[in-house]
Amino acid sequence: MRHLLISAIVAAGTQFAFVVPVHSQVTAAGIAGFQGTWTLDLERSGGTSPERRIVSADAESMRIETHRAEDARPPVLLYRFDGSDKLNAFGDNTATTRLRREGSDLVLETVYLVNEQAVTVDETWRLDENGREMIVDVMMRIEHGYHGVPPPFVKSPPNISKVTNVFRKEPN
């Protein structure tokens, strides 16, 4: 009887380990709802200038083309579904991108250089219940040599900023 109980506990624990992965694989089919053309809703967002993103995918990666008035040419970044780093041309420099899924959310990490200093942008994308709005939580970290303890009135480190942007999907 004891052997049967131990076997049942081990079997249950093994099934649980396979059912609850920390991060699940990203696939083209899994990001279908994120594909399309998205326009930033300036009134509901932390963004300060108009932006349009065109999201598409092939069998291996997600492609994001970002249109902003200040860019002479829209930057295009690729994020590999397998979660590995992808080196992209980015203006006069490069950007390294990485993609993962956390539940139904997509998490995009982009690291690029500005004035020889690393800038890391982490975006968490999630869709509303209708798939017509994409909520993007953005955390930007600028590595430019802050040292010491921040004053007590500073709520977050001086090199980190957070904002939430809302994009609306354009009709097909």
Would you kindly provide a written description of the structure presented here, covering whatever features stand out?
There is one protein chain. The chain is mainly beta and 172 residues long. The protein is 10% helix and 46% strand. The chain has a single domain, classed as Calycin beta-barrel core domain (Lipocalin, Beta Barrel). A 10-stranded antiparallel beta sheet has the order 4-3-2-1-10-9-8-7-6-5, with no helix packed on it. A hairpin with an 8-residue loop joins strand 3 and strand 4 (76-80). The termini are far apart.
Keywords:
Lipocalin; 172 residues; 10 strands
Give the helix proportion (percent range).
10-25%
Largest sheet, order of strands side by side? Answer: 4-3-2-1-10-9-8-7-6-5
Architecture (CATH level 2) name: Beta Barrel
Number of domains: 1
Report the end-to-end length measured between terminal Cα atoms: 62 Å
Query: Structural class of the helices, strands and pairings?
Result: mainly beta
Quick one: overall form?
globular
- Radius of gyration (CA) equals 20 Å
